[in-house]
Amino acid sequence: EAGVTQSPTHLIKTRGQQATLRCSPISGHTSVYWYQQALGLGLQFLLWYDEGEERNRGNFPPRFSGRQFPNYSSELNVNALELEDSALYLCASSYGGPRISNTGELFFGEGSRLTVL
Amino acid sequence: KNQVEQSPQSLIILEGKNCTLQCNYTVSPFSNLRWYKQDTGRGPVSLTIMTFSENTKSNGRYTATLDADTKQSSLHITASQLSDSASYICVVIPQFYNQGGKLIFGQGTELSVKP
Fold first, then answer.
1. How far is CA A10 from the centre of its chain?
2. Residue numbers in B near A56 (CB within 8 A)
3. What would the 3-class secondary structure string for B7-64 be?
4. What is the pLDDT of residues A16-75, one digit of tens each?
């Protein structure tokens, strides 16, 4: 069974540009989560999508946005990039909708490393 | 404010030795607590999960304990191996997480196992 896949693995941008990161969840999972992990820091919650809708959002400015497609894949967009946006962006998936559990079992991808110069 | 604090921030041990990582939390009410292992540059992988009513859970050389009264959890690693070098993250799942809540992540403990 394929795990959560993310692309690109690495991305280099300059300040002010836009970045788009993509995530494909495990087959059968309808919930997708995005986290930011800056160097040496813990995971910071960005966004949670379930069955195409945004379920929750972390404390990030509006230039961080995303969407979930009908096939449950998702993309994260970061506009007007700033130097402090440099981080590992992790996507995770889980069962959602009526099958969502309260065990917090997330399956993470390998992440996309964004570097802003 | 719901928080999860881990200690130590980093730890260096020799191969074959045991170690214990600590997690203190203020999340209330909570339903579950997980420990994740994150290899450098990789995504976290779940090691153990414990409900508030469980005291201990083992997964091979990893043993997690939970004291819901003192709101403390620990992860004990026995007979450490070089492959145990990673960041270990404590995650608390709030009681109503499945209704739109957020997982509460600790900052992680960076473990380095030396030969």
1. 14
2. 100-102
3. ECCEEEEECCCCEEEEEEECCCCEEEEEEEEECCCCCCEEEEEEECCCCEEEECCEEE
4. 999 999 999 999 999 999 999 998 778 898 999 988 999 889 999 999 999 999 999 999
CA distance B79 to B87: 17
Chain B positions touching A4 (Cβ under 8 A) are 43
Distance of CA B102 to the CA centre of its chain: 17
Residues on chain B touching A109 (C-beta within 8 angstroms): 43
pLDDT along chain B (115 residues), means of 10: 88 97 90 91 90 90 94 96 96 77 87 97
- Look at B98 and A92 and tell me if their CB atoms are within 8 Å: no
Q: How confident is the model at residue A82 (pLDDT cuts 50, 70, 90)?
A: very high
CA distance B2 to B60: 30
